[in-house]
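User: Can you help me understand a structure? I only have the sequence.
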Amino acid sequence: MRILALDTSTEWCSAALGDGGQWHVREGHAGALHSEHLLPMVRSLLADGGLSFANLDGIAFGAGPGSFTGIRVGCGVAQGLAFGADLPVVGVSTLEALAQEARRAHGWQRVFACLDARMREVYAAAYEAEGMRWRAIVEPMVARPVDLAAANQADAGAGNGFAAYPALAKQLGLTAVDAELRPTARAVGELALPELAAGRGVPAAEALPTYVRQRVALTTAERDAGMRL
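Assistant: Let's start by predicting it. Here is the structure, written out as tokens:
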């Protein structure tokens, strides 16, 4: 099966095209400009492979949690492309995709995935590898770092939440941390392929983001205090 995968959940924008054995990737730092970068990446991938959407079996996207605007862009582009090509869509947790990257980079099997959620909070979840898949041992949440001490059931940590809060690794008792890792479109695609093969893709209209935190605006006082979403 061949899948197009997208991830715009962080300040990085990435797209990947692959079949599980071989992957072609485009990625770059987009800041808040995912909408300007994502479609050119998709066109470049298809052109390089000499493919069209008719050659694809599905589309996957990083469903969140993450940047509110970013995941809306990723979901919207996935929906639009899938609707036009009549393809199923698979949404993948960005925290699970982060765990997938940790396994690729380090071989870790129990990963505490943690992304900076701004507003003095983090998005976090813990996963344990089961074959080529992951089982959530702590479901995705948004929390203050200080409240995570009882949540850890993993050995190693991944994601920029550990860069934003350097004391968090010790607080969680982790043996290793890679704060440079991030969710990628390739990881999203790898996790989506088994779902697609099992027929668990959904129509474009049913593809939805996962926000975890529903609040998307700051008060004036919070903005004046330097808080960011």
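Now, to help you interpret it: The CA atoms of residues 166 and 179 lie 9 Å apart. The domain at 95-178 is CATH 3.30.420.40 (Nucleotidyltransferase; domain 5). Let me know which part you'd like to focus on.
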